Amino acid sequence: MRSTARQLLRLLPAVAIAAVAAGCAGTTAPSPTAFSPSPTTSSPSPTASEGPAAPAGKKIGACRTQDMSAVVAMQPSEGGSTSTAMVQLTNDGGSVCEVDGWASFSLVNALGEVVEVKTEKVEQPGAPTPTTLKAGSSAWAGIKWESCDKGSSDCPAGNSLQFSLEADTDGKPAELEGFPAPEKSNITMGSLRIGSLQPIRQGVVAW
């Protein structure tokens, strides 16, 4: 009996040490927290309204007579005293320009003098359409006039037409197609109506 007690006493320190070791082994040391740096806050990409304002585009200037050419082509006659012609107005300059409104046309006699004709600008085939013309591109219009008796003293007669985009009667000669030969001075205009400038030719004489 005493022998057994002594054996137990010898075992107690070893058991105690084992228990302490087991307790230490069961305690999990806290894992070091991984370093997670805060994400760098990037500036938002600027939108069109937030970014610097885009420079305003260069304003397109009005076309000038000196930079333009005009071809006036007689249209088939439907009979009566009314004549119709289609106008092709072309930008011959090196810069982009804009037309808006009407071109002016004047009857000119053999002496190069402007002959006074009762003239009206009409919204035909509709209101004027602002048209940007690159070099070599064209705008279109129609003109109509009432012929008169050349032998009458009050009948304006001439042999050519001038055109202008400015508010005056000075202009440049227009190229005429299908008109009477200039030497005959057989262009008579009791009255003249000028249609509005349009970006396409379809319909410009259909009035």
Automatic annotation (TrEMBL):
Keyword Signal: yes
Region described as Disordered: spans on this chain: 28-59
PROSITE patterns referenced in this protein's UniProt entry, alphabetically: PROKAR_LIPOPROTEIN (PS51257)
One Pfam match: DUF4232
Statement: the UniProt record of this protein carries the keyword Transcription: no
Start and end residues of each DUF4232 domain: 63-195
Domain of life of the organism encoding this protein: Bacteria
Cleaved signal peptide residues: 1-18
Keyword list, A-Z: Signal
Name of the protein described by the UniProt record: DUF4232 domain-containing protein
Species the sequence originates in: Winogradskya humida
